[in-house]
Design brief:
Helices cover 36% and strands 16% of the residues. It is α+β, with helices and mostly antiparallel strands.
């Protein structure tokens, strides 16, 4: 049984879809290199079938620029750990191989489960709404991290998602002061709000 069949059989969401794996890989390591985005410094991910419950009456891009925000989000969710069982181990091996890339003010503690030996707790920024600094994603640390994960095949042998990849990258390489919770944006995508 291949990984598509296996993940589908055990009930991992979209575990049987090769197109979903392509999308996750694209959003993890390629979108920020698209030629149409090269002239821009920031992006706002907008998905179909989303609902905003309030007007956004300010310029989000100006806000993140003026406040030196590298990444903004509206909610955190838990993902199915069965979809990426090797992600945390690969991330730890990356940290051990490249400790110089981890920001001195990195905050990984909120991602660690003290009741599970300090493993990744599967909490992640819900990437269906994110505002980010493209220069961060194009930077050395994020690029090396993505390539490290991509070489391991986790996007296809497992189902690495872009949300945990962005979360771990931001947590490792961005100080907490440059991460922003858009608490004033009422947002819903599917059942998440």
């Amino acid at each position: 049984m291949n990984s598509l069949e296996y993940l589908g059989a055990i009930g991992v969401g979209k575990g049987w879809m090769i197109s979903y794996r392509h999308m996750c890989r694209w959003n993890s390591g390629f979108f920020y290199r698209h030629p149409r985005l090269l002239e821009f410094d920031f992006y706002w991910r907008v998905e179909p079938d989303v609902h905003y419950f309030c007007d956004i009456n300010y310029d989000v891009f100006r806000f993140v620029r003026d406040n030196n925000i590298k990444y903004g989000f509206t909610m955190n969710i838990l993902d199915d750990a069965r979809s990426f069982p090797s992600l945390w181990g690969r991330t730890m091996s990356f940290i051990n191989a490249h400790p110089e890339l981890v920001h001195p003010e990195a905050d990984l503690d909120w991602l660690l489960d003290p009741f599970n030996g300090g493993d990744y707790n599967n909490c992640q920024f819900f990437s269906n709404f994110e505002v980010g600094d493209l220069r961060f994603f194009r930077g050395e640390a994020n690029e090396k991290y993505f390539k490290w994960l991509d070489r391991g095949g986790g996007f296809y042998y497992e189902r690495f998602g872009d949300a945990p990849i962005h979360t771990l990258s931001v947590a490792m390489f961005v100080p907490k002061s440059e991460i922003w919770f858009f608490r004033d944006v009422g947002y819903q995508h599917d059942i998440n709000r």
